[in-house]
Amino acid sequence: MPLLDQLDTFVTDVLAPRAAEIDETAEFPQDVISAAAQIGLQRVLIGDDGTLDPSRAPLVHEISERLAMHSMASAVAIANAHLTTYLLLKYAPAELTERWVEPTLTGETFGAFAITEAHAGTDVRGMASVARRDGDDYLLTGEKAWVGYAPNASFAIVLAKEGTAERDAPMVALVVDTASPGVTGAPGPAFSGLRGMSNGTLSFDDVRVPAWSRLSVEGFGGMMDGLNLARIDAASYACGLLRGALVASTERAARRTAFGRPLGDLQAIQAKIGRMATDYQAARALTARAAASFAAGDGGDQDVISMAKLFTSEAARRHTDAAVQIHGAEGMVRSSWVNRLDRDAKVTQIFDGTSEIHETMLGRRAVRLTAAGGDLGAFLGREQ
């Protein structure tokens, strides 16, 4: 059976029946993740020869969208396996890939991607974590915040400054075994959305990390292809939330009556649903283009990927809110589907780069390109 057909069966038989419970309890859905591994959802970026195959990125988009429509926490867990194994297979030595990749693909272990700190989110240069060389090792000190899977991760990809905490210090990415002495993982505050994804802090107190556990990248910019992959996933989650809002709203409009006729006969409702459908199609098209750019190699088109993440997250938040409005009092019930979609949509505006930072980066690039006499057509996607 083709993978996407297996995915649809998985969503219908496994994920959808568990989605409300995952949100209600906020417990990590290990059963769902293990079942996903059985049909190879975590393995989608791995070719038949066991090596990375970025050309399969459009499948990543489809998987994340279809999962997030029901449970964004489950979609993020699968995407986390894509991200961590991608970075390991591309940049880590064989000792690390042999240890961590296969257990991650089967859902037995989880990796954390630790960049953010309590006082350094978008401002990556503001981080205070430091890795100092000590012979053949690094000594890692610092604390990372809002780390997905911090309480249950088996390993973490940690970005730290090398040698000193000075703002312009070079950065190093280390793969850290969370069972190492000096590593402490703790749960963080509960989110209103994305319930079922564990998050928290990872603290490092002079943790000894072998120098060979360093990824072969130069700092934050060197991992931009991994960040691009994460942003394609984020755009795909938003597409799934948008689709869920559209499905729920049309069903509500068809079955609910008001003033003696179907709710969907009211022009105000038709207008909301019409805009919702239009933005969903636009979001899917832009995200598909972003995924195609990644599939073409070289880490993807950063501008298009940023646009996709920005547009889809803003549209998802706008239209899940509209879906709540269409559902009236029922939409305010926490256990309702549209309420869950609305809470999840807010998360997409914040993680993997806030909407504001994407707007700023894109605007700055367009202005500087024009000021330098460059061709804005390339930025806008015109074929050269």
From TrEMBL:
Q: What is the lineage of its organism?
A: Bacteria, Bacillati, Actinomycetota, Actinomycetes, Micrococcales
UniProt domain Acyl-CoA dehydrogenase/oxidase C-terminal: residue ranges: 218-366
According to UniProt, the name of this protein is Alkylation response protein AidB-like acyl-CoA dehydrogenase
Q: Which residues form the Acyl-CoA dehydrogenase/oxidase N-terminal domain?
A: 4-108
A molecular function annotated in GO for this UniProt entry is: acyl-CoA dehydrogenase activity
**According to its UniProt record, which protein family does this protein belong to?**
Belongs to the acyl-CoA dehydrogenase family.
| Cofactor(s) this protein requires | FAD
For the Acyl-CoA oxidase/dehydrogenase middle domain, which residue ranges apply? 112-207
Gene3D superfamilies on file: Acyl-CoA dehydrogenase/oxidase, N-terminal domain, Butyryl-CoA Dehydrogenase, subunit A, domain 2, Butyryl-CoA Dehydrogenase, subunit A, domain 3
Q: Cite the PANTHER family for this sequence.
A: ACYL-COA DEHYDROGENASE
Which InterPro entries does the UniProt record give? Answer: Acyl-CoA_DH_CS, Acyl-CoA_Oxase/DH_mid-dom, Acyl-CoA_Oxase/DH_mid-dom_sf, AcylCo_DH-like_C, AcylCo_DH/oxidase_C, AcylCoA_DH/ox_N, AcylCoA_DH/ox_N_sf, AcylCoA_DH/oxidase_NM_dom_sf
**In which domain of life is the source organism classified?**
Bacteria
Is Protein transport one of the keywords?
A: no
**Organism name:** Georgenia muralis
Annotated keywords: FAD, Flavoprotein, Oxidoreductase
Coiled-coil annotated residue ranges, if any: none
